Amino acid sequence: MAGATLLSALACFAALAAQPLPSSHTPLRPQPEGYRGRPVQLILFDGPGATQTYPTSINNNGTVTGFYADENGGHGFLRGMDGSFVTFDAPGSQNIYPSSINSAGAVAGNYSDTSQHGFLRNPDGSWITFDVPGTLPSSSGNPIGINDSGTIAGPYLNGSEMHGFLRTADGSLSTIDAPASTYTYATGINKGGMVTGIYDDVNYNAHGFVRGIGGEWRDFDVPGNNFGFFPPTLSINDSGVVVGSYFQESTQGFLWRLGNSPVTFEVAGAAGTQPSGINSNGAVVGSYQDSSSTYHGFVRTPSGVVQTFSVPGAIGTFAVGINDSGAIAGSYQDASYESHGFLLIQ
User: Can you give the residue range of the structural domain that contains 290?
Assistant: First the structure.
């Protein structure tokens, strides 16, 4: 694919990058144009007293969730489009990993105390803890997603067997396993309740899947049947389009829609391309590694044009999500290897 770049568009921020980094919620200006033909605004932020800040998800209202660390441990956060910042903690725990936020502002994730638990933080701040028959993932690298109906999906381990789970808004919990599967790993859920992920068949070959709202299963394969990074990063938008990565000489991205073969893509010249999310319009966001092993962000537009960007002065830029308005959330590392949050509005 022919590529365009936001790196040059953001180059006018470079002089600012040489100065001390802006304080929380400070917008950078002037504003170049992004792929939607609108001015770009880059906002850098941190949790209060944070030594590390990691956004994980953004909703259609522009609210970002994630976690940050300070001298007292880890905390969850919500950052609103108006710059408001709300922190929250899991009961009895110093480790919390919010991983998804829906349009209403409900957050799902996991935390650990003496064992591991799933959680739902409602928009009013009330808290629900839930458990699965086995063990939930214990870090932010393992996705637990929530859709606008309040249904939560994710993976869990029961003994040596990996399964997917669904928790509906009424609290009902069910296991989901691909037919004839020895391993089912659910990674994403869309507004209609379609779930995506990967599974292994009896011969330990990996396949992608989409589980429909009626429980029907559809699978697909990527070149080489190798989904690369673990945990896998498959996401599904409200139109049922799946985005993820696979490995064939290098990590590359793919898009899959029911009835079609996967469409593969990569950032030109990249040593690896790692998509992390897709919005309802079909815009894909993620990160890529250049030839010097430095990470940058990218956007693949609905028409297939790939644009790249970096936070000025950062030694690594990692995009994690994009909403339907094109706002992108992620983290970046400064020269001291400290992580901070960013919001790119375009």
Answer: 1-44+266-329
